[in-house]
Design brief:
By secondary structure, the protein is mainly alpha-helical. It is 43% helix and 0% strand.
Length: 153
């Protein structure tokens, strides 16, 4: 390897080239909306609609729909507020502490050493051969379908 400059000069030269590249780097429309957010917000507060603002941007060769513009404005506002607030953890229900749920825990007695007649628990449940409960959704009973129409080819 044959360096014609020092490491410091090479580092500075690469940093300069990177800064130059960044200045010419194509921006996304979102980045542009983010940079000019304050004037855009002022226009909205003064009564301009999203469509009017988008028409102004389109005249300046910045193509954006009103829906996308509204989304970008909300996103920038959220970022400026500091993003979302951290969620607080849920508090456990008072009766769930220290007890592990089992499939039949809702019908079992809360004291494990109590003697309960197993037939008494079964009496509260519907028998498997009993008629099913009415469904809340509409049924297809009485529905008849017609033959599809014949299509001439």
């Amino acid at each position: 390897m044959n360096l014609t400059m020092t490491v410091e000069e090479l580092t500075a030269d690469l940093a300069k080239e990177h800064e130059e590249w960044l200045s010419h780097k194509p921006q996304t429309v979102y980045d542009l909306v983010k940079q000019i957010y304050e004037p855009l917000l002022k226009m909205k507060q003064d009564g301009r609609t999203d469509s009017e603002i988008c028409a102004m941007l389109t005249k300046r060769r910045i193509d954006i729909s009103a829906g996308t513009f509204a989304t970008y404005m909300k996103r920038v506002a959220k970022e400026l507020r500091g993003g979302t607030r951290p969620r607080t953890a849920r508090k456990p229900k008072p009766d769930s502490e220290g007890r592990r749920a089992t499939p039949d825990s809702r019908v079992q007695n809360s004291t494990p050493d109590s003697k309960v007649d197993p037939g008494a628990q079964q009496a509260s449940r519907p028998k498997p051969d009993s008629a099913p409960a009415q469904s809340a959704s509409p049924s297809m009973s009485g529905f008849t379908s017609r033959k599809p129409p014949a299509l001439d080819a």
